[in-house]
Each structure stands twice: as structure tokens, then as C-alpha cells.
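Posted in: Protein Modeling Q&A

I'm a second-year student putting together a small comparison for a lab meeting, and my supervisor asked me to include a predicted structure for Transporter, NhaC family. I've never done this before, so apologies if this is the wrong subforum. The sequence is pasted below exactly as I got it from our records. If anyone can share the C-alpha cell output, I'd also love a short note on what stands out.
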Amino acid sequence: MAKKAQKPKYREAENIVENKELSIWEALIPVFALVAMLAYNVFVFGDSAIEGSNQFILLLGGAVAAVVGFKNKVSYKQMLAEVAENVRSTTGALLILLMVGALAGTWLISGIIPAMIYYGLYILNPTIFLAACVVICAIISIATGSSWTTAATVGIALIGIGDVLGISLGMTAGAVLSGAYFGDKMSPLSDTTNLAPVMAGGELFSHIRYMALTTIPTITVTLLIFIIIGFSIDSTGPADASEILRIIGERFNINGWLFIVPIVVIFLIIKKTPPLVALLIGTLLGGVFALIFQPSIVSSLGGASELSFESGYKGVLNAITVETQLEAPEKYSKLFKSKGMAGMLGTIWLIVCAMVFGGIMDGIGALQRITKSLLNMAKTTFGLFASTVGSCLALNVTASDQYLALVVPGKMFSNAYRERGLAPENLSRTLEDSGTVTSVLVPWNTCGAYHSGVLGVPVIDYFAFAIFNWLSPFMTLLFAALQIKIKQLVVPAKA
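Accepted answer (user: helix_wrangler)
Welcome! Here is the predicted structure, written out as C-alpha cells:
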């Protein structure tokens, strides 16, 4: 007789997922409590809420969820097991965050980011800048399959260029993220683009082709809006960039060889090198190029007047690990500053606390109960699409993770789509249009925390300008309401 497979301890909480005793109102109690506490906290602390108080509020939200769980006979051990699994699932993202901080440090002192800003100021003018940000980031994101990598490389440089041109950082960040998430959705190299059809029971390239029906109109509208904004904004313009060009030229050895490093990183990711490995190589190459092209900067960071092995080692490691601020006029100081790995710890703290809340909500069965209630409301085809969108949005807010926003609704809704005679591409497209792209609009979501930390722009500042991200769910609902290109299941012909 075959021995029954034993479930790993950290998955014990799966027994709670189907908790019949949890009512919809019990499931929503932690959500209402969290939203109310976060709203008041942001009202009191403003933008600084992200520096620590929001993290504690997420833990309090988890405590409220735990009380609901205890009431429904869910053990502390089971809830903690689900929290541990949630935190474990973010290990890769947390390591990538640390490496992005390290990469930003060596790319600053090597002159790579200053070179991007320097040449970008010659090419981009305020009128076309925002639309160009969308196009550039879309191309890079399609090539790499990663909105995270796009934001951490060209995104940082574009933020610097926009700042010099006198364009709102929120506008620039919104344009960067609109392009980055367009590429992230449409690239076959993207993990979410691969995950969505798997959860829906579809096929990758069929999913991409079908997703283009809503994605192309959305990015077109986004570009048109940014073009209109470009003609209407009042900025300092390229004529005022002469001072920053002079400052960069005086402090750095700017040349085309510096672009070898970002090209290598992009090439590695196109070749499906794990992002963590590609970013580590980019960090190390940035350090080598800093020693070659910017020896005086490296030696000063190492506390010496001349470059030696010790001062070079110390200077590069300082840039990698701690905050680096190079000498510059105050109004341009942000362009010559990097956070290093230490600067990413606040974002990591936020993600871990969000995973605690999401883990407990998952462990007590609240996330699944909310999703099922949304499914029960779907009486029509449009209602089914709307319920999927609502479920994805709710999970991005409560579970704080875009992958859960794809996986949980994908599991819950796949049979419903099939029973209605709808092809799996309908579900996979809706998952991406509402789960993948809206994650960056939630400050405590892993994506929102990551991008606001990397770009240095709070979510509340770029929210309205991340046009592609918030417009995508409306576009997929519009197509569903008007019955545009709703693909039906093909029934095999009888022999």
C-alpha cells in the first residue's frame, strides 16, 4: 500500500483555506480595519507614513485578522505557518531589492547614471520627454521581461533627467511605470505573462496575442495623454540644462564606454539569466568601471586623496552598502545621491509587514472567502469579468502581492469561465489587466513599495500619472460590456 504523502509543515494552513465558518463580514473585518487605520495614519504622517508607521499599521491589521481567526478556531501555529510561507515567497524579491540598491551605488560613482542623464538632456526636450519615457521603458521592459529591472536602470536615469528639465517627479515616474508595465505584460520573458495563462489553463503566445486587443488601445491612450501633457507643461527646458551638463562634465569622465555595463545587463536578462545574477554582475562591472573611469571619486569615498587598493576597495564597498552623496550644488544634490543596500531596508521592512497581514488573511481563509463572494455575484458574462477584476484589486490591496492577485482568482474563476463557454484567454487577459498592472498603485504592495523606493517617488505622487496601470482594468471591462472580441471555447468536432 502506497504511503500517503505528508504535507509540508509550512503548508498546514491550507486546511483553513476552505473554512466554512468564516462569513463574508468576518472576512472583511480586517480589510475595513486596515483601510481605516492606514487612512488615518497617512492623514497624520503624510508622505512620511511609509517610513515606518504604515508598517506597524499592517501588523495591527494582521492582529485584527488573527483575532477573527482565533474566533473561528484557527490556531496560532497555522496562521504563523502561512505567514512564514508568504515571507519565504518574497525572498527573491527582497534580495533583488538589496542588489538594486547596490547597483544604483556603483552605477552612480562609475558615471553610468550621470552619463545617461548627460546624453539624455541632449536628446530629450520637455515637449516629448514624458511620451519618450513611456516608449523607452516599454522597449526595455519587453526586451527584459521585467518592470523591476527597467525601473532600476533606465527609470532612475529618466527620473534624473525629468528633475533637471523641471518636470514633476510624479509625472516622470508615472510615464516610466506606464511603459515598464506595458512591456512587463506583453513580454514572453515576463514571469506574470507566463503565470497568468498557466492559472487560466491557456497557452502563452495565444494569451499575448489576445491581451494585445486591450493593451494596445490602453497604451495608445496613455501616449496621447502624455503628448498632450508635454505640450501643456511649463518646464525649464533644455536651455536651462547647461549648468547641470557642466556640473556632470566637471565631476565625471563621461564617455560612451560606460554604456557597456547597462547593455551587458540587458543582454543577460534577454538571455534569461536570473535577474539577481544579472544585477550582481551589473553591480560588480559598475565597480570596475568606477575604478577605471572615476578613480578620484572612488578614492574620496574611500577616505584617501589617491586611489590605492585599500581606498578603492573601501570606496566601492561604501557605494554598494550605504548611502552615497557626492559633492554638488544643493538643487542638484539628488542627482548625485544613491541609497545603496542600506537605503532599501525600509522598503524590505514594508514588504515583510505586508506579507504578515496577507499571510494571516490567507491562513484564516479570508482571502478565499472574499473571492468566492465576488464569484457568487457574477450572474452575467460582464459580471464574471467584473468579479475577476474586483478580486484581483482586492487581493493586491489585502494580500499585498501581485502573484497572489493572479494565482488565487485564477484558481477560483477558471471553472466558471469554462462553464460559461469562455476561452481561458478571457481569464488570463483579465488577470493581467487588473492584477499585474495595478499592484504598483498600492503603497504597501510589494510592487508599489519596490518602485516608490527605487524611483524615490511616493505612490501617492505618481498614482494619477501611472495612466496605463489604472486605465487597464477599465479597458478590459469596457471590452466585456460591449462584447468586443470575447473569445469562445472551441468545441472539438465529433469524429
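A couple of things worth pointing out for your meeting: The mean pLDDT is 82. Residues 92-344 form one domain.
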